[in-house]
Amino acid sequence: MPDAPASNLPEDSAAVATELKRRAEEVARELGTRAARTEELRRVPDENMDLIISAGLLGVLQPRAWGGHQLTMRAHLDVVSAIAEGCSATGWVLGVMHAHSWMMAHFPPAAQKDVYGDSPDIMISAVIGPRGRAVLKPDGAFELNGFWPFGSGCQLSKWLLLGAEIVDENGDVIDAADFLVPTAEVDIKDDWYVAGLAGTGSCSLEVRNLTVPAHRHLSIGAMIDGDTPGLRDGYDGWLHRAEAVPVLSLCLCGSALGLARGALAEFRRSVMGKAVAYTEHVMSEWSATHVALGNAASLIDAAHLILYRAADDINDYAREGKKMTMEMRGRIRMDCSQGVKLALDAVDKLFLMSGGSGLALRSPIQRSARDLHAINMHGLLLHEASAELYGRVLLGLEPNTNII
Question: For the whole model, what pTM was predicted?
């Protein structure tokens, strides 16, 4: 348990970030004791998120006006990666919830009040991509319908962000947006039976004929362009003026760093004195172990450097009020894909060197390997797609997506 309430924090932002990182490391130790149970539950336990909230770790990117810390992307990586060292599922869910609280700063103030008016400690899950359909009504409200898979942490959340195409009453598409809806008004399907990130509770969500008031929608294009109601109506910070796709991409990556660091520590512990079957080798003394461990540690270091460089670039451009070039945006999307792939490559090396005992479901390394495969399969982190996009931009071609 954290040794201080969330409100008992220093006033200086850098000191707050340092303290939250320390608390995250402390909380992670307890989360690690029930990581296997989290996977068995197929969702993050309530007590995990209670610990997160009591330590003040939920609001790292949340607007300060609504009780958040409004820190930096570097602080975000510090906290999420630390939590993921203890529990990968909790780290993943916390990472995406940070992303959604960052998005809330772009919504109209009335929507922000709907979410945070009674308490700053509100969890928001989302499926951001426009998979649903919202009909714009003459009074400005919307009728929302759709089916959204992959709602990570939805069982814990009071609110959801659901992406949909907006159509007029003639059926013509006029925009794409994310819609803020109470979780209680959404049907959560118990369908999360998967081989990786199994403990994230990323169940499918369904809505039928739900009326959403006008102030609870956010144009995806406007968010990407940085021209949103929340930024126009008196916002005086810099964090939420950062480029949207780089921010949302990076928020998927912190858990991969923590997973990889945790697997490395577990491998170092588990090989001590362990015999290599059908040989005279002891793993901790075998040169093949040394080579695998050295390579894995270096790959994890490389992932750290790439992802923290991306975090610093996002911070710096936003702080200075500068728009990123298309090449920079393409590079950061590639950085995110490359960072999680480096973490996966590192842990795969350790997993294969673990021998038959590494296959045991009680082994944290096999869970880390499966979870990292799942992270690398996220649509925004697909390595080939990000490489293609970045290569096009480097050649002066138009990007083949606006998600950059």
Answer: 0.96
